[in-house]
Specification:
Layout lengths: L12 H9 L16 H10 L13 H13 L3 E4 L10 E4 L11 E4 L9 H6 L11 H9 L5 E5 L5 H9 L1 H10 L1 H22 L5 E7 L12 H7 L1 H13 L4 E4 L8 H8 L3 E3 L8 H8 L4 E3 L4 H6 L2 H15 L5 E2 L12 H13 L3
Parallel strand pairs: 1-4, 4-5, 5-6, 6-7, 7-8, 8-9
Antiparallel strand pairs: 2-3
């Protein structure tokens, strides 16, 4: 059991950003995660008594907790988007069987039919207003975040492929790509219009140094819709996000699950992503992806979730060392899981991954 970290690290957002942009060789291993499930956050705080000095009646308790947690774990940043910028979806819930069980179960989006399956539903859909979404959280971080940390603008935007899928339902989307391409195009344009406002609002805050889009486009053996359709309805949105981020001096990261070989050149040479996140051993281990694309973009994470669930602590430590041995010398790598810190990963395996990364001699 990991009861403490052997090596202490101090956040260094400049070193973190330089690692992503491949501007310089890192002086230590930097960590990155799309998110930690809330159950994992609570478990870490409880094990290490991180909240003993915080008052849970403080109106900024959750934000202060996030800063404490991220610093303790060794991250150089907090992630933040606009407050209360959500879209109505058709969801279903089932019981959660994870060791750190989620209250209320695990939620899934209906794959058959979403809230927009026709022009009538498109016109009546309650689209959120990006101009009225709140900025309370990012304002607080912008004013109170320690100088050695930065904000990653992430969450609630750049979900172009995902929201085409979720708003229509995957099954309906597949039919619509043949029968109602004009409706698919209208949803795509609406998402671009919304997200272009969101990203510009987030980039007004000086502590934002990285932009991270999240948009699953694939599955184990290919893309969820054809590369042709992705180029028409999805990639233009990411290209705009990357352009806006770059104009503000920020790298644009992309989290996307699945086998994306068919569009990787598009993502690198046309969209101009700076880094890719989300790797699965059964698709392509991060070490192989690093050899294929590491001279063009950064690779992030890659310690496979299935492996983390099944391995013992020594296996995790060995995997971390081997991954760092391969990826760090090529430049442009940050250590993390292949997807996110899910509540079904054994907590000690996650902590062992971080502990081994802290001890690694660069």
């Amino acid at each position: 059991m990991v009861n403490t970290f052997e090596v202490q690290v101090t956040p260094d957002w400049r070193g973190f950003v330089n690692s992503i942009t491949r501007r310089s060789k890192p002086r230590r291993v930097h960590f990155i995660e799309l998110f930690l499930d809330s159950e994992v956050q609570v478990a870490v705080c409880e094990r290490f008594h991180l909240l003993d000095e915080l008052d849970n009646r403080d109106p900024h308790f959750e934000l202060k907790r996030q800063v404490l947690l991220q610093r303790f774990l060794g991250y150089d940043y907090v992630r933040c988007g606009l407050d209360d910028f959500d879209m109505t979806l058709n969801r279903q819930a089932v019981g959660d069987t994870a060791a750190l069980e989620r209250a209320g179960g695990r939620s899934y989006v209906d794959e058959h039919a979403g809230p927009i399956t026709s022009w009538k539903e498109f016109k009546s859909y309650p689209w959120p207003d990006p101009l009225t979404a709140g900025t309370r959280s990012i304002e607080w971080y912008d004013s109170n975040l320690p100088d050695d940390m930065c904000i990653i603008a992430s969450g609630g935007f750049a979900h172009f492929a995902e929201y085409l899928n979720w708003l229509m339902g995957y099954e309906t989307l597949c039919y619509a790509l043949h029968d109602q391409r004009d409706l698919v195009a209208a949803i795509s344009r609406k998402l671009i219009d919304l997200y272009s406002v969101v990203i510009k609002r987030l980039l007004q805050f000086k502590r934002v140094k990285v932009v991270w889009g999240s948009d699953d486009m694939g599955f184990r053996s290919g893309t969820l819709i054809s590369p042709y359709d992705l180029r028409e309805f999805v990639l233009p949105g990411h290209k705009l996000m990357a352009d806006i981020a770059h104009q503000a001096g920020c790298p644009y990261l992309l989290h996307s699950c699945g086998k994306l070989d068919a569009i990787m050149d598009d993502l690198i040479d046309d969209v101009h992503i700076d880094a890719r996140h989300s790797f699965e051993d059964t698709i392509e281990p991060v070490t192989l992806a690093m050899r294929r694309y590491g001279d063009r973009i950064a690779m992030l994470g890659g310690i496979d979730l299935d492996f983390l669930c099944r391995a013992d602590e020594q296996m995790v430590r060995q995997r971390v060392r081997e991954t760092l041995d391969t990826c760090l010398p090529l430049g442009g790598y940050c250590l993390g899981t292949g997807n996110s810190v899910a509540n079904y990963i054994p907590l000690d395996n996650y902590l062992a991954m971080l502990d081994e990364g802290r001890k690694y001699q660069v």
